[in-house]
User: Which sequence fits this backbone?
């Protein structure tokens, strides 16, 4: 157990776990604690066992990382494992969970709901911290250094609450760290041999300033200084505005307003109202087997009058049927996947029911339900708490989308092409700017969505402006759609309305859908809250039906555009990403989407199942690759710096050598240094002859190599010790032969070191540094001299 | 050729054996006054070594050092347990050179005047007349030098360093070449007076023969069984030739780097924490001279650091005094010196 260092490992693990404690103030409920503890425990156990087996830190740290991955798979990735091992599907699942965690952090003010994503994110982060801390504190025996990762983790969890933290969190973390520091410090002190006798009477020898007591004195001074600094520094330094991790939890909006009982979505949407409150109350929770989540639709609005959308009367034939006829317009050639969704605890009032579209089968128990004849919206005749649907996730191909070219057909679509007359002017103007004249319908729809989502400079805000400046600089209060298109500020309702109107203007039947975003997940169960309420446009395409579009950029809600609604791109830069979309309410609204991908025209690559994965890794990976490439280039140049310096130094010295014997001396020095870099270093007091014998023995020289070495040695002896006037021969070629021969028998590691990190190059850099230092010091010295002279003069 | 002083007045000194009265054919001699070429030096030294090796079996290193000291105008101290051939080596070296040789057996009651000589009143000329002591010879073999009292040992101080003797205010020059070869038992042996530091410092080198290898010992039983090979040894060179060789050795080139190296080595012994007494400047000088002789014996006209390193042990080991801790750690002065040599860097050029 001594090799495993169980006690130290346990303390290090406890440190790692305790720094996550402040997270309890950020996420509720604290269901993440147990899995996180399990992760830390895995790290500790693997560390202890690994240390008992091997002393290689690489092996132990590697095993710990593997342990973290495995443990994460077992704890968080159940159902996505391959015989208990993580495989690509696990990565995909984790990726989705992490996206979810990111959305949760962005969308919620503290305390945020603890979804599965958050649990995974915390577990992984604390697991990695535990590996680093264990490595630094236990393997490397430098617990002081381990304070840095601990502090980082602690600060991340502490700084995002937006409020001051209770002292107990800091006391606990700091106390454990000090315990670790003290334990190891005392242990290493005990290993010292000392000539100072330990006092047996308990009285300290105060005269003794050496040894342990000296350290104790330093420690006391540091403690006093730290205390003083803790009091003084906060008074002195200015207070910076609070910064949060990915603009998330710390933002304090008035995110309260829990209400019990049933909720209903207002089926009248007034575009002039700012959204003041977002209810955190859960509306429903569900489980699904879908990889990509779609919003749940509650209703459809087609009639826009004045300032608001108005519902129409339902025309439903209620029944208890379990199978649903597919929409008549849906062609057989549209790729589709069938998923299942099971809803629990729905609090929606009848006749509303949240459901994905289009439905295939339904199971609502004994509740009668039906589809509206006009809109195909599911409605129930009384509230239903738990139900399940299977539905189709449509993934129309480019071809089928592009086919939908002809104008509107059928009378029922007339209402869906009516543009608001009050704002007709600006709508047609905007459509003229945004949609190319020869665009197909899907191209037009995409262009409009892109314009609203990224290119147009729109900003997501729950606060609506009252007025907007006209071209004369006067405040005006036009109709809501004009106001939105000119002020470019609004939330989902405004974005969706604008898109509906613009699409209608472009000749595409469009209508308004209301419902809920997919919500946040916790162990496979998704919870939809009042704040997830959302509105989006649905556009009609011939041969496919109504398709959801997503013009709203991510704001307090995270909205993901469906893949078919985006211009075809390669997966690597798929702009469905919430992270490239305006990543929060305060992020820059003018960030264009898909801006960096002019050449991507491959339409077949945009597949639905890819998009989530790509959205997390895509643009970041691209940036990362760029950075890595830049790093490699800089690294290459940097690594060339030392060998090039060595070369130039050698050449310069040879050039400036006054005579042949100096040259020989330089060549000899260079040779010994190079061979020394290769790891063959003769004793310090060796004569050239002895050095030669040493090289011969160490490098197993033979034949011509021995002869070359002999010539080198004799050349050096002649140049150094022979009477003046002796003929000195150049040994350059022979030194090269010898270096090559020695290099041939050395290990690759030594050869690499000799090539990339030659002593001569280091000397050159040291000299250059010294030269710079001299350059700086000289004027200072002169100034000093001048001052001294003046003082002397005065005296 | 110097006159030989017979030892009538020196009662305690053992009778010396004048050797080489006749010049054998094999004797190689050079004209006096001119330095020998390096080729001649190696040639003569080679003969000398071969001649000595016929008598002293299996000790070529020791013989080489002895010849080095001879050519470097130094004095040789042979220290070893009784019976390993110290005196034999000294006598063989003396006999190989056709020159005046005296042997002094040091005993506890030997007097300084026995060494240096004494002025006696000559009735005939009614004046004091100087009777030279045992020191007046080209080669002086001092046997068991540490059995005499320090008082007598000190009589050698002036003669060994300056090549002269001062008696009653009158200074007498000693013949050239002049070499004192003294033998002694290790100081731990009974009935010995350790040589004072000043006296030890005057010996250029101390060597010990050590026990022969078993093969060499068998060979020795063969060669020394009936008659001593020393009896049949013929001189291979003469005093004038040795002088010429000495002059040749003096002309061996020493670069500034080598001088610096020798000085560095001395300085290292002085600052070493393992040593109580380091090398004197005289030791530095001796090292350089010995290194020159070593280089010349290899036929080289310049000194290499390797020459210096190969003579450091015999030249310095008897001069430095280890600290009590070093002695307690059972480290010999030789080991300390080896250690220093490993650590003192070889300068590339004189600073």
Assistant:
């Amino acid at each position: 157990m001594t090799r495993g260092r169980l006690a130290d490992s346990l303390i290090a693990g406890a440190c790692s776990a305790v720094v996550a404690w402040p997270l309890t103030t950020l996420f509720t409920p604290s269901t993440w604690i147990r899995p996180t503890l399990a992760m830390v425990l895995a790290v500790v156990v693997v560390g202890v066992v690994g240390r008992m087996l091997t002393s290689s830190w690489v092996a132990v740290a590697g095993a710990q990382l593997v342990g973290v991955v495995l443990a994460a798979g077992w704890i968080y990735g159940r159902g996505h494992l391959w015989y208990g091992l993580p495989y690509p599907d696990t990565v995909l699942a984790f990726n989705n969970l992490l996206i979810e965690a990111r959305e949760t952090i962005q969308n919620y003010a503290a305390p945020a709901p603890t979804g599965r994503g958050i649990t995974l994110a915390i577990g992984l982060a604390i697991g990695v911290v535990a590996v680093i801390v264990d490595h630094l504190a236990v393997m490397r025996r430098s617990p002081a250094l381990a304070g840095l990762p601990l502090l980082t983790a602690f600060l991340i969890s502490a700084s995002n609450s937006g409020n001051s933290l209770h002292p107990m969190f800091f006391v606990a973390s700091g106390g454990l760290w000090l315990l670790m520091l003290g334990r190891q410090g005392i242990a290493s002190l005990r290993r010292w041999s000392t000539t100072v006798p330990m006092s047996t009477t308990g009285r300290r020898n105060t005269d003794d300033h050496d040894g342990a007591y000296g350290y104790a004195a330093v420690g006391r001074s540091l403690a006093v200084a730290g205390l003083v600094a803790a009091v003084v520094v906060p008074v002195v330094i200015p207070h910076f505005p609070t910064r949060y991790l990915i603009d998330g939890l710390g933002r304090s909006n008035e995110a309260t307003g829990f209400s019990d009982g049933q909720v209903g979505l207002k089926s009248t949407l007034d575009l002039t109202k700012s959204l003041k409150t977002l209810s955190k109350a859960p509306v429903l929770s569900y489980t699904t087997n879908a990889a990509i989540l779609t919003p749940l639709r509650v209703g459809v609005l087609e009639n826009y009058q004045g300032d608001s959308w108005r519902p129409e009367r339902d025309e439903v034939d209620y029944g208890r049927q379990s199978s649903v006829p597919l929409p008549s317009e849906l062609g057989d050639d549209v790729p589709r996947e069938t998923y299942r969704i099971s809803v629990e605890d729905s609090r929606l009032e009848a006749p509303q029911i949240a459901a994905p579209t289009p439905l295939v089968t339904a199971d609502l128990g004994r509740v009668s339900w039906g589809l509206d004849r006009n809109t195909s919206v599911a409605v129930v005749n009384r509230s239903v708490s738990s139900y399940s649907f299977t539905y189709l996730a449509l993934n129309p191909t480019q071809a089928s989308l592009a086919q939908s070219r002809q104008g509107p057909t059928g009378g029922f679509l007339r209402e869906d092409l009516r543009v608001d007359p009050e704002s007709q002017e600006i709508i047609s103007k905007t459509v003229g700017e945004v949609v190319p004249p020869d665009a197909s319908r899907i191209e037009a729809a995409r262009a409009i969505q892109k314009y609203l989502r990224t290119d147009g400079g729109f900003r997501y805000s729950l606060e609506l402006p009252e007025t907007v400046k006209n071209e004369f600089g006067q405040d005006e209060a036009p109709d809501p759609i004009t106001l939105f298109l000119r002020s470019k500020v609004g939330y989902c309702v405004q974005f969706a309305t604008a898109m509906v109107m613009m699409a209608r203007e472009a000749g595409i039947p469009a209508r308004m859908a209301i419902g809920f975003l997919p919500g946040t997940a916790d162990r496979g169960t998704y919870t939809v809250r009042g704040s997830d309420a959302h509105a989006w446009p649905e556009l009609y395409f011939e041969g496919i039906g109504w398709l959801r579009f997503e013009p709203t950029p991510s704001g307090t809600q995270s909205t993901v555009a469906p893949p078919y609604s985006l211009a075809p791109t390669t997966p690597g830069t798929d702009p469905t990403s919430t992270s490239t979309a305006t990543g929060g309410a305060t992020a820059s609204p003018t960030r264009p989407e898909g801006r960096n991908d002019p050449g991507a025209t491959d339409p077949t690559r945009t597949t639905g199942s890819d998009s989530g994965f790509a959205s997390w890794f895509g643009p970041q990976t691209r940036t990362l690759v760029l950075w890595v490439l830049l790093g490699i280039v800089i690294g290459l140049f940097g690594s060339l710096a030392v060998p090039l310096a060595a070369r130039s130094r050698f050449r310069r010295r040879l050039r400036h050598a006054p005579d042949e014997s100096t040259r020989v001396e330089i060549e000899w020095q260079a040779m010994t240094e190079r061979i020394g870099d290769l790891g063959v270093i003769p004793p310090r007091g060796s004569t050239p002859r002895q050095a030669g014998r040493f090289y011969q023995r160490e490098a197993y020289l033979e034949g011509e190599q021995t002869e070359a070495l002999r010539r080198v040695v004799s050349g050096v002896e002649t140049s150094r010790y022979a009477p003046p006037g002796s003929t000195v021969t150049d040994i350059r070629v022979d030194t090269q032969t010898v270096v090559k021969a020695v290099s041939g028998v050395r290990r690759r590691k030594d050869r690499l070191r000799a090539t990339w990190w030659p002593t001569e190059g280091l000397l050159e850099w040291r000299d250059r540094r010294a030269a710079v230092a001299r350059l700086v010091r000289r004027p200072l010295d002169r100034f000093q001299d001048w001052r001294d002279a003046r003082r002397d003069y005065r005296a | 050729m110097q006159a030989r002083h017979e030892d009538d007045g020196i009662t305690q000194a053992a009778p010396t054996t004048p050797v080489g009265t006749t010049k054998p054919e094999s004797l190689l001699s050079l004209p006096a006054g001119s330095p020998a070429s390096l080729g001649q030096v190696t040639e003569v030294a080679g003969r000398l070594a071969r001649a000595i090796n016929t008598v002293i079996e299996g000790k070529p290193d020791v013989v080489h050092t002895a010849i080095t000291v001879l050519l470097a105008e130094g004095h040789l101290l042979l220290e070893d347990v009784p019976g390993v051939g110290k005196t034999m080596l000294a006598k063989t070296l003396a006999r190989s050179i056709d020159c005046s040789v005296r042997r002094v057996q040091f005993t506890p009651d030997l007097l300084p005047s026995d060494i240096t000589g004494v002025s006696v009143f000559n009735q005939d000329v009614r004046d004091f007349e100087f009777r030279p002591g045992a020191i007046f010879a080209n080669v002086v073999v001092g046997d068991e030098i540490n059995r005499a009292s320090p008082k007598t040992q000190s009589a050698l101080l002036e003669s060994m360093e300056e090549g002269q003797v001062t008696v009653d205010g009158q200074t007498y020059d000693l013949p050239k070449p002049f070499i004192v070869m003294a033998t002694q038992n290790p100081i731990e042996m009974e009935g010995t007076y350790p040589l004072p530091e000043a006296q030890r410092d005057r010996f250029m080198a101390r060597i010990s023969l050590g026990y022969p290898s078993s093969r060499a010992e068998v060979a020795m039983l063969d060669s020394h069984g009936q008659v001593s090979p020393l009896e049949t040894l013929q001189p291979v060179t003469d005093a004038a030739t040795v002088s010429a060789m000495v002059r040749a050795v003096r002309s061996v080139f020493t670069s500034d780097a080598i001088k610096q190296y020798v000085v560095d080595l001395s300085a290292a012994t002085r600052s070493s924490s393992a040593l109580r007494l380091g090398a004197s400047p005289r030791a530095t000088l001796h090292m350089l001279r010995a290194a020159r002789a070593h280089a010349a014996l290899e036929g080289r006209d310049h000194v290499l650091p390797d020459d210096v390193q190969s003579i450091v042990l015999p030249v310095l080991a008897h001069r430095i005094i280890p600290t009590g801790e070093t002695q307690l750690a059972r480290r010999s002065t030789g080991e300390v010196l080896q250690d220093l040599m490993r650590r003192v860097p070889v300068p590339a050029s004189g600073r």
About this structure: The radius of gyration of chain B is 20 Å.
